[in-house]
């Protein structure tokens, strides 16, 4: 049984039978800015009963040159406390896509391990015929939440560069193969295409079952995926992607298979791709 996942039927039963529990269900659905859509609109249309909504932008560093970067402890405390989450609150995270693992990583990086992901997210909740609510977000009573950043959870650009040159850590990249190979744009204006030296293409989509399940694959399947991509898991692993979001999925799956020695490169390709002092490798077209 996973320490970090909760199944739809278990959450539905808990919401029905244990309404007084210190629990917050958190919808963190999010769209890329260029989509022109706002996830809060979807939340108003339908969400899990008593869920609260958080926008990824609210808990990302607004002063950084790079997108979706980890915020300060003070900012995280303010937003999370405002959602009615305290130090002893059980947090259940879900979305309609691929962001839940990022929130899971953020909570744990700030020292809050009472957090789980709804396996299959909103899509499986709906497919299973579970109840939904339609309403505006309900203001929560602010709670005291203390964020204490845990050292060793975030990899720097220099660590990733060193790993690529010296091979002292494995780099796994969650982006699509086309972006990794440099055959497709990076997705960010002004950011070059390609990949880092030593990185292994490990697309995040591989770690989810197809519709209607959308659940994470089993531990055995996850281990097989890493091995089939050539990722040696005997030492440290650094995860990366376009902006640090889907890299969290790779980290989540590493935790699931019991590999604790990993860090997330928060700047990811959004930082690496626009720096002048970084090497960008492109594969030849077939």
TrEMBL record:
Domain Rhodanese: 19-134, 165-281
Keyword Cytoplasm: no
Database matches in SUPFAM superfamilies: Rhodanese/Cell cycle control phosphatase (SSF52821)
Database matches in SMART domains: RHOD
Signal peptide: none
Gene Ontology MF term list: thiosulfate-cyanide sulfurtransferase activity
Major enzyme class: transferase
Catalytic activity, EC: 2.8.1.-
This protein's UniProt keywords: Repeat, Transferase
InterPro entries: Rhodanese-like_dom, Rhodanese-like_dom_sf, TST/MPST-like
Coiled coil region boundaries: none
Superkingdom: Bacteria
Protein's UniProt keywords contain Isomerase: no
UniProt name for this protein: Sulfurtransferase
Species per Swiss-Prot/TrEMBL record: Octadecabacter arcticus 238
């Amino acid at each position: 049984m996973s320490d970090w996942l909760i199944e739809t039927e278990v959450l539905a039963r808990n919401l029905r039978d244990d309404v007084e529990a210190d629990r917050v269900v958190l919808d963190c659905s999010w769209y890329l800015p260029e989509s022109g859509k706002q996830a809060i609109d979807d939340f108003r249309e339908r969400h899990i009963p008593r869920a609260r909504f958080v926008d990824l932008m609210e808990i990302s560093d607004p002063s950084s040159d790079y997108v979706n970067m980890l915020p300060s402890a003070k900012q995280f405390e303010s937003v999370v406390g405002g959602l009615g989450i305290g130090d002893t609150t059980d947090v259940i995270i879900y979305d309609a896509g691929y962001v839940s693992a990022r929130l899971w990583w953020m909570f744990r990086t700030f020292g809050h391990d009472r957090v789980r992901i709804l396996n299959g997210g909103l899509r499986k909740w709906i497919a299973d015929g579970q109840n939904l609510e339609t309403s505006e977000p309900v203001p929560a009573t602010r709670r005291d939440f203390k964020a204490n950043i845990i050292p060793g959870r975030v990899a720097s650009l220099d660590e990733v560069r060193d790993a690529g040159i010296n091979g002292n850590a494995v780099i796994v990249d969650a982006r699509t193969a086309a972006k990794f190979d440099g055959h497709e744009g990076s997705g960010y204006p002004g950011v070059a295409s390609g990949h880092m030296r030593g990185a292994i293409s490990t697309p995040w989509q591989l770690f989810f079952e197809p519709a209607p399940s959308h659940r994470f694959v089993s531990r055995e399947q996850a281990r097989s995926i890493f091995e089939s991509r050539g990722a040696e898991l005997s030492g440290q692993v650094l995860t990366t992607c376009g902006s640090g979001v889907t890299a969290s999925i790779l980290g989540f799956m590493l935790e699931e298979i019991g590999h604790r020695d990993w860090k997330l490169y928060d700047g990811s390709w959004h930082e690496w791709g626009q720096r002048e002092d970084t090497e960008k490798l492109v594969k030849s077209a077939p």
